[in-house]
Amino acid sequence: MGGRDSPAMGVDGRQNPHYKPRMNKSTLLTLLEQVRDGGVEVGAAVLALEQLPFSELEDAVVDHHRALRQHVPEVIFAPGKTVEQIVSVARAILDHGQNLLITRLDEKKAAGVCQSIPELNYESVARVGVYAPHPVVPLTDDCVAVVTAGTSDIPVAEEVMATLKASGVPTIRIVDVGVAGIHRLFAKLEPISKAKVVIVVAGMEGALASVLGGIISGPLIAVPTSVGYGVSRDGYAALIGMLSSCAAGVTVVNIDNGFGAAMAAVRILAGSKS
Fold first, then answer.
1. What range does the domain containing 44 cover?
2. HEC states along 218-272?
3. Cα separation values, 9 from 13, 96, 105, 120, Å
């Protein structure tokens, strides 16, 4: 990562001023080991490290240090940003050797972003844009079960799964096993019970989180969705029901926050490796 044949060095053996490293825990350890062993010059290591910890853009400060702290590079939240702002932040992330994940990206903005970054893969159901020019480093061999109460909860579940995939976490997808037909859930208990973490995505009254929380032993993260009639109040009934669960230890994230649930699972899995 910095020897004579490294991209940090030019063909004449001098430091390449345009080199921007992909920095995560693995590459940082490799860099330090190479400096220790004499394979990388101190100047080349400084060049790599001086790109941290952030880039100041006109409308944003992009955190390039996040992958070192939390395994996953900074993720772009699209609402409230213009296409130009999204592209600017995306280019800063890509220029520093990181993979790109954009959440809550609507189709109109996605079309604009894809004009500037044609490699972006837009997943319309999940409303995410993904571009992974580098192999995703597996975080774990353990899987996360993503379980929905109904078909209407799938878009939020797809955001969960896209985020976990981008984080190097394997998943299993189980849909439409809500309490209105609880026998459907019992038929899927074996794969759910084998998962290291379970994420339950449910609207209406959010009861599925309590049911599963009382059955399985591992961590359970509940995502209330804005699915339901009248007094469901765009997910508030499910949120309150999950927060009031009599199943001990159920963790609840915000309404429709599939990304937040996925990142909670990443923290649990990353912590179990420490």
1. 1-51
2. CCEEEEECCCCCHHHHHHHHHHHHHHCCCCCCCEECCCCCHHHHHHHHHHHHHHH
3. 6, 16, 37, 29
Judge whether 138 lies within some domain. Answer: no
Residue 147: strand pairing partners: 174, 200
Residue 25 belongs to some domain of the structure: yes
Residue 202 DSSP SS3: strand
Residues of the chain scoring pLDDT < 50: 1-19
The CA distance from 167 to 146, in Å, is: 15
Per-residue model confidence as pLDDT tens digits over 159-197: 999 999 999 999 999 999 999 999 999 999 999 999 999
Tell me, what's the pLDDT at 13?
Answer: 41
- For residue 11, what pLDDT is reported? 33
HSE-up of 89 (CA within 13 Å, CB side)? 19
3-class DSSP state of 201: strand
What tokens appear for 38 in the block? Answer: 């004499």
pTM: 0.77
Partners of 270 in the β-ladder? none
Q: Assess whether 229 and 160 both reside in one domain.
A: yes
CA distance 193 to 157: 18
Q: How many separate domains does the chain show? A: 3
